[in-house]
C-alpha cells in the first residue's frame, strides 16, 4: 500500500485517524501499532515475521544491556549480537543474490541465485533498530521495557517503508507522552497534502517523461546503434534532469507525507530534505539530501572510525568506507557502489583540492557546478545494467554520433515545458520565501490569502484524486531500497 493511492487516502488513513483520536490516550500506541502491522502486511504478510524478529532481537539485547549495566564486556557482547543479527538479515535478503552473481561471474561458474524477494523497508527499519542498540550501549537513551512500545517505534507506518530514519532518541518521549492538538493536526495535514501533490502531480509526470526518453534510448541501442532522431545530446541531458527531479520530488514527497502524518499522530520526525537541488557544492548537497541517512552514517560509522581526527590517510579511508557503504545501502548492484564512490571522490577533492577556490566563484556558477555533478551522478544511480549505463552516457556526450539537438526535443519542450518549469521552481526554496512574505501582510491580506490557499488546496486535491483514479504510473522509487 502506498500513500498516494485511493485505498490509503480514503479508507486506511481516515479509519486510523478516527479510531486513534477516539480511544483513550493509554490505548493510542496500540491502535497505531495495529494499523502499522496491517499496513506492512498489506503487500507481503510473510515478511512481517522478519520485522517482528528484528524488533524482538534488539528489544531483548537492550534489556540484557540494562541488566548487566556494570559490565562493559557483556554490554558490548549484547551490542555485537544485535548488530550482527541485524546486518546478517539485511545482508541475506538484500545482498545474497548480488554476491552469488558476482562470485559466479568472477569464477565463471553457473551458480543459481536464490531469487529472494526484498522485504519492503528493510534498509530503513534495520538502521532504526541498530541505532537504538548503539545509543543504548553509549547510554544516550534509556532502555525501553515495554515491548509493544518499542515495536510501535519500529513499525510506525508513516516512516516505516522509506524513512526518514527516525532514531529512538528522537521519539522516545513522545512514545510515552505526546500532545495531540488541533494545530498539530492542521499543520500535519498541510504537510501531508503538499507531499501528495509533489508526488502525484510532479514526480509521476516528470517520471513519465523520463521513462519516454529512456525507452527511446533503449530502443536505439537495441536496434544496433544510436538513433539521432530519437535521442539527441540535449534530450539525453533533459532525460537525466527529469530523473533527478522525479527522484527528488518522489522521495521528498514521501518524507513530507511521513512527517505530516507523524505530526497528526503527535510525533515530530526530523526533516529529511532541505532543497538539495539548490546546493552550491557537493558537500552542500549532502547536507540537504536524505539527511537522516547521511547523519546516520556520520554518527555510527564515520565518527567511530575516527572521522577527520586521525590524519589525512585515515580520514580518506574513513570517507571511502562511508561512501562505499552509502552506495551499497541503496541497492545490491555495482552501479550503486560506483555512485557512492563517485561522491566519495568528489567530496575528497572539494575538501583537499578545489574547495577554497570553489567558494570564491559566483554563486550561480557554484550552483551550476553542483547540479551538473548531481544530474550526472543520478544517471549512474538509475542504470543497474552497465551496458545501458554506458549507452546512455555516450548519448549525453555525443560519443555515439547523435546530434546535439533533435526534432524530438521540440516536442518534449512543447508538451512538458509548464511541468518542467514548475518542478524546477519548486525544487528551490520558493515556497518558504512566499510564505515569509505572506506573513508580513496585514491581517486582511493574510485572511484573503488563506481563503485562496484553501480553495487552491481543495482544487489540487481533486486534481490529484483524478490522476490517481485514471493513471497507472504511480511508483515510489525508494520502496526498492
Whole-number mean pLDDT: 90
Envelope shape = globular
Which oligomerization state do the chains in this entry correspond to? Answer: single chain
- Order of helices and strands, N to C? HHHHHHHHHHHHHHHHHHH
Using the CA coordinates, give the radius of gyration: 24 Å
What structural class results from the helix and strand content?
Answer: mainly alpha
How many beta strands in the DSSP annotation? 0
Low-confidence stretches: 221-228
Span from first to last CA? 16 Å
Number of domains: 2
**What proportion of the residues form beta strands (DSSP E)?**
under 5%
Largest sheet: none
Secondary structure tally, helices: 19
Helix content: over 70%
What does this structure look like?
- The chain is mostly helical.
- It folds into 2 domains: 6-178, no CATH class; 187-306 and 354-480, no CATH class.
- It has 19 helices and no strands.
- It has helices at residues 6-22, 28-41, 48-67, 72-107, 122-137, 147-155, 157-160, 168-176, 182-222, 233-264, 282-288, 291-305, 312-330, 334-359, 363-382, 386-396, 407-426, 430-439, 443-470.
- Helix 9 (182-222) crosses helix 19 (443-470) and helix 12 (291-305) runs antiparallel to helix 13.
- The protein is globular, with a radius of gyration of 24 Å.
- 37% of the residues are buried.
Amino acid at each position: 500500500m502506498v500513500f498516494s493511492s485511493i485505498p490509503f487516502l480514503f479508507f486506511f488513513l481516515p479509519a486510523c485517524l478516527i479510531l486513534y483520536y477516539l480511544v483513550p490516550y493509554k490505548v493510542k500506541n496500540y491502535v497505531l501499532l495495529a494499523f502499522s502491522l496491517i499496513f506492512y502486511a498489506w503487500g507481503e504478510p510473510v515478511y512481517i515475521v522478519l520485522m517482528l524478529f528484528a524488533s524482538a532481537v534488539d528489544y531483548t539485547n537492550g534489556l540484557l544491556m540494562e541488566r548487566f549495566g556494570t559490565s562493559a564486556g557483556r554490554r558490548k557482547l549484547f551490542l555485537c549480537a544485535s548488530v550482527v543479527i541485524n546486518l546478517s538479515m539485511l545482508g541475506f535478503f538484500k545482498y545474497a543474490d548480488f554476491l552469488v552473481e558476482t562470485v559466479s561471474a568472477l569464477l565463471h561458474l553457473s551458480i543459481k541465485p536464490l531469487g529472494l524477494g526484498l522485504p519492503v523497508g528493510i534498509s530503513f527499519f534495520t538502521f532504526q533498530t541498530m541505532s537504538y542498540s548503539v545509543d543504548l550501549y553509549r547510554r544516550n537513551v534509556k532502555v525501553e521495557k515495554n515491548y509493544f512500545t518499542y515495536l510501535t517505534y519500529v513499525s510506525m507506518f508513516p516512516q516505516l517503508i522509506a524513512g526518514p530514519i527516525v532514531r529512538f532518541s528522537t521519539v522516545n518521549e513522545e512514545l510515552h507522552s505526546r500532545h495531540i492538538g488541533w494545530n498539530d493536526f492542521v499543520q500535519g495535514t498541510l504537510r501531508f497534502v503538499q507531499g501528495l501533490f509533489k508526488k502525484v502531480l510532479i514526480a509521476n509526470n516528470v517520471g513519465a517523461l523520463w521513462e519516454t526518453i529512456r525507452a527511446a534510448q533503449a530502443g536505439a541501442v537495441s536496434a544496433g546503434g544510436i538513433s539521432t532522431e530519437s535521442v539527441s545530446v540535449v534530450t539525453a541531458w533533459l532525460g537525466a534532469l527529469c530523473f533527478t527531479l522525479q527522484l527528488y520530488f518522489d522521495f521528498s514527497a514521501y518524507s513530507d507525507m511521513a512527517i505530516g502524518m507523524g505530526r497528526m499522530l503527535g510525533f515530530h520526525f526530523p526533516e529529511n530534505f532541505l532543497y538539495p537541488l539548490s546546493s552550491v557544492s557537493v558537500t552542500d548537497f549532502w547536507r540537504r539530501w536524505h539527511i537522516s541517512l547521511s547523519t546516520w552514517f556520520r554518527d555510527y560509522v564515520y565518527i567511530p572510525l575516527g572521522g577527520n581526527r586521525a590524519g589525512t590517510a585515515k580520514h580518506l579511508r574513513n570517507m571511502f568506507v562511508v561512501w562505499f557503504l552509502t552506495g551499497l545501502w541503496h541497492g545490491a548492484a555495482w552501479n550503486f557502489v560506483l555512485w557512492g564512490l563517485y561522491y566519495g571522490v568528489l567530496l575528497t577533492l572539494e575538501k583537499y583540492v578545489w574547495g577554497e577556490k570553489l567558494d570564491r566563484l559566483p554563486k550561480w556558477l557554484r550552483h551550476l557546478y553542483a547540479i551538473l555533478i548531481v544530474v550526472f551522478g543520478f544517471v549512474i544511480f538509475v542504470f543497474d545494467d552497465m551496458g545501458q549505463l554506458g549507452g546512455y552516457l555516450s548519448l549525453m556526450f555525443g560519443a555515439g554520433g547523435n546530434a546535439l539537438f533533435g526534432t524530438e526535443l521540440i516536442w518534449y519542450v512543447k508538451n512538458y515545458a509548464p511541468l518542467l518549469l514548475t518542478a524546477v521552481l519548486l525544487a528551490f526554496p520558493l515556497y518558504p520565501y512566499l510564505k515569509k512574505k505572506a506573513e508580513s501582510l496585514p491581517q486582511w491580506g493574510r485572511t484573503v490569502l488563506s481563503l485562496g490557499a484553501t480553495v487552491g488546496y481543495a482544487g489540487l486535491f481533486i486534481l490529484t484524486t483524478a490522476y490517481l483514479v485514471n493513471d497507472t504510473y504511480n511508483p515510489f522509487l525508494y520502496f526498492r531500497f
